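COMPLEX REQUEST
Ligand: WQD
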Amino acid sequence: MKKILITGGAGFIGSHTAVALFESGYLPVIVDNFSNSEATVLKGIQKICDKEFSFYEGDCTDADFLQHVFKSEENIEGVIHFAASKAVGESVEKPLEYYYNNIQSLITLLNVMNDQRCSLLVFSSSCTVYGQPDKLPVTEVTPKKQAESPYGNTKRICEEIIEDTVKSGALLKAINLRYFNPVGAHPSALIGELPLGVPNNLIPFITQTAAGMREKLMVFGDDYSTPDGTAIRDYIHVMDLAEAHVATIAFLEKTAETSYSDVINVGTGHGNSVMEVIQAFEEVSGDKLSYQIGPRRSGDIEMVYANADKSQSVLGWKAKRSLKEALDDAWRWQGTLKSK
Ligand code: WQD
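STATUS: Structure written out below.
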């Protein structure tokens, strides 16, 4: 089986991508420093796939560590690079940590990949690079805007580092995947989003409120220019997102050019408001959710959702799971956390 290195593979999207890779006949090799994940996630992947895989604990800013992984695994076919710090609010408080970790880990990885003649790269980028788009839905040529946070800035800078490396003639074929809002969990409830600490994101806050761990959900603003006044996002099931990574690896394997880079949006192509998410969740859980309308959260944008045509035309991939399916899977996953 072809080996694919997943940096940050014990994380939320990384762990689900490991499962999707196994399901498509690849062999994942996982690297993680457990800064925002736990070893139990590796057991979950093993239980779902019923297969063994290599795991290395370490940091992607450490070239010797990455060299050791490549030498130990010999023929790594390609890399999916998730490893990064990703809390928007935290990045505002700790910009230097974010710039160092997110950018240095990419530079180190690219150097080691070049040294090891590994030429396939899928990079975990984000729709954050668009800021508040002037026109919706967002296509890949929608102008990038000054990021609202150091986190978003690191994603924009990393995309440019990859593009410039390819332009320099390096033997690298890379695609930057710009995610919209990943939500949900694997239907087995053996892996999901491990919100370590108070969740920033909407869905874990909803499920923790419904589970009685939080008193109520604060809805950040209902005075936006949207149909119900609450902000709109493109919520994509994490398993759809995982499968998009596998489709991207397969596409890069077939790409004839030896130096190639592109960007592709990974979203469902439609948006839902916070209130629509709450209503959908109440249908899933069968209970009313306790929430209160509060002020807007600083840095939030009003509305963003993807034009998903390019992912379909280039990768032959499109999201196939609904928001309710994602909420159902997230709720089932939350049910397992109480017992942890
Ligand atoms: C979604 C909506 C909130 C919590 C961020 C990153 C993005 C990506 C996904 C990494 C917004 C509202 C939320 C709450 C609320 N991460 N909300 N009450 O901010 O769209 O995107 O996470 O790649 O890069 O920017 O996601 O889930 O925080 O918020 O009303 O307690 O839910 O205002 O409208 P966001 P989110």
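REMARKS: The radius of gyration is 19 Å. The pocket of WQD is lined by residues 86, 88, 126, 128, 179, 181, 200-202, 205, 217-220, 231, 233, 274, 297, 300 (CB under 6 Å).
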